[in-house]
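Here is a tokenized protein:
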Amino acid sequence: MYPEGGYQPITPIQLANALAALDAGAITFRAFRVYLGCFELVAIREAARRVRTAAGTVQDRPARFRPAELVRLLGEGTEAGVRRELKRLAALGLLTTGPGLLAVTETPLESNRDLLPELACGRRPTRNVPVPRRVLVFLCRSRKPALVRTALAYLLRGLALERGTGAVKAAGTVKISWISSAFGISERAARASRAELIRLGLIAKDTGSHQRKLNRDGAYFRINLCWAGGRTPGRLPASPVDNPPLRAPGSAPLGAEIRPAFAPPVKRPETPPDLKTQKLAPRDGPGVRNEGRRVTLRNIRRDDLRRVSSLRTLHRQAVAARWLPPGEAGFLNFAAAAVHANRASGDAVRIFVAVVRRGLWHHVTQADEDRARAAVARTRRPAPAAGTPLGDLLRRAAA
């Protein structure tokens, strides 16, 4: 009924404020982790105050918040870096800091007007989501943005306080498509993060739902309130690999499985007859590439698939032509398809267009997406100045 280690109530408004700033580029992912760490610091002070009240002792001096606590909580960084992140969060109105004061803003900011209805999930945006403190520490130390966003989606959809008793409800349903659209990640990354959360034991896998129910509401899940930060106490291994059968002492080990060898493929050095009459397309012709030409979907060249600037131009045209929906997640799939086409053997342009037009995203591997994400990250703009208003940052991101 209650999470082991306690919980800290967080409202969808507070999460939407920070996620909107993160999506707009106003804060870094490390600053977002510092933002989550502030909830843990507040929970520590509130727990200490309850203990002192129960014991009948009163503390005259106010509580102190030290950056060294956040450094230990994150497991990386320096005190100077944490101070910069706190100043950035305070400048954007996400936090209120001062001598003995650390408060998280509880009112919605103008920047999260579109994101807040999604995170509210049809309920009051001011409701308290009882996030277990062990899960909160895990999110602060995680360096995977997709994993943190997916975990927050499951917490918002599954955790609630029961009226009257105050017991914690820890079950719900969620669709991968909703996680992808609401939290700005690709469906492939959301599925991989869900598998990671199931492997860690934080959520349970849905094994009994029918396909009609999955299509309507998504997969059913239950959050483990006894979660111990990556290991579940008292749970027996579920696979023969974790729990191998006992063998008599001195018995010989199992021999290696011998499989029949396959014959090597037949080599055909000659040119296939159906390719002798083929002509090169204009984009594959020899000559010097024209740097001043206009990048367009009607004449895609292989060099266009190797530059992020050209891919962004092609992505805008593809969205206008209704090849795929808009959004950063769609552009990441678009770039990953370009990486896959450049790596595959054959006409890269034809392979790229086939993957995008026909939605053959299952051909794109996780390695392709990781290379595309790294290439896109290298071309991002530098972080804005600390005094830049959040409204200007959003307009700059939209441009």
